[in-house]
Amino acid sequence: MSVEPAIRPSDVPETDILACDALVVGGGPAGMEAARVAAKRGHQVVLYEKASWLGGLLPVASMVKHLETLDILTFVKYLETQIKKEGVRIHLKKEVTPEIVRQEKPDVLVLAAGAAYTKFHLPGGDGRKVLTPGGLHQQLKFFLKFFSPTTLEKLTRIWMPVGKTVVVTGGTLHGCELAEFLTKRQRKVTLIHNGPASELGEGMTGDDLMNLWPWMEKKGVVINADVQYREVTDRGLVVTDPDGRERLIEVDNVCTTQDFAPNYEALGRLGQLVPETYNVGSSEKPGLIVDAMREGARVGYAI
Ligand SMILES: Cc1cc2nc3c(=O)[nH]c(=O)nc-3n(C[C@H](O)[C@H](O)[C@H](O)COP(=O)(O)OP(=O)(O)OC[C@H]3O[C@@H](n4cnc5c(N)ncnc54)[C@H](O)[C@@H]3O)c2cc1C
Asked: What pLDDT, on a 0 to 100 scale, did the predictor assign at position 32?
């Protein structure tokens, strides 16, 4: 089945600003689910998304996940269809400002602006070689303005701004998925983790892991747990092994996968304008899609 998920601006009717019951900031799963439930319960809902598509981080996630790409994109399409059916007014390519909140005059403000990126704290960690999730996502989001995620996923097989040899720091869900993604694009990958081996693959399903480890072994992915990251130099990443020995992993790029953080930026900027304000999804507590959906629904029912 071919699913072209990309929700292009032309698909979504834009209407003028009207007074509304609830203003939702962010068109990721948390914002769309809050909007869907609140609208289904009879509220006038308006949703603003600063990107030119709906889905939040999901189009980016879908590209990294490959096999589940179509599932994630179909899910985004489902949410989009439901909020349109429920009459949610949708504004794409519009970042919510205090001015917009004053014009919309909502009774309730739902902030679903997504998580904040954190810094990679290491000497040399802001160097040229280092590719952080924030930087990579920014690049992918730029190209998503022009290509659907399925097309972009194919294009990354031809070109990516990542060197031939890569060390991925962090061996849980995001690190494993990134290592797999890069290996499938002919990068020579070392996956290192600064915690015990028992944490490797944390967040992935047992089924996925049963396939992943033998596959990585076959593809020559080097996996090291219990190492300490020391510094990034212009030759690569210096680590200390469990036996205390220091060594340099010589690579073109160091791809980091540090955790996301809660995001109170929108809350600080907009929260005081509307007495009933909720911060939901990854902007309140970074997590998985299921968490974003649950919290979005919870707020939709609470309004
Ligand atoms: C590579 C990757 C792989 C992942 N894989 C999985 C997985 O396998 N399973 C899983 O469950 N989860 C996965 N996730 C996590 C999942 O993407 C998040 O849980 C989910 O996207 C959080 O939803 P959200 O709605 O809270 O935030 P987001 O999806 O981040 O959406 C927030 C939206 O708010 C918009 N916004 C922000 N500020 C404003 C503003 N002022 N005005 C208007 N709009 C604004 C942003 O543009 C964005 O679209 C993955 C994430 C990544 C990055």
From this structure: 98
**Using a 6 Å cutoff on CB, does residue 113 contact ligand 1?**
yes
How many CB atoms neighbour CB 3 within 10 A? Answer: 15
DSSP 10-48: GGS--------SEEEE--SHHHHHHHHHHHHTT--EEEE
* Residue 289 CB–ligand 1 contact under 6 Å: yes
Out of 14-18, 34-38, 273-277, 291-295, least confident range: 14-18
pTM, to two decimals: 0.90
Question: Whose alpha carbon is nearest atom 20 of ligand 1?
Answer: 289
Matching CATH number, 9-116+261-302, of 3.40.1260.10, 3.30.450.40, 3.40.50.300, 3.40.50.720? 3.40.50.720
List the chain domain ranges: 9-116+261-302, 130-256
Ligand 1 mutation target, pool 46, 57, 176, 178, most atoms within 8 A of CB: 57
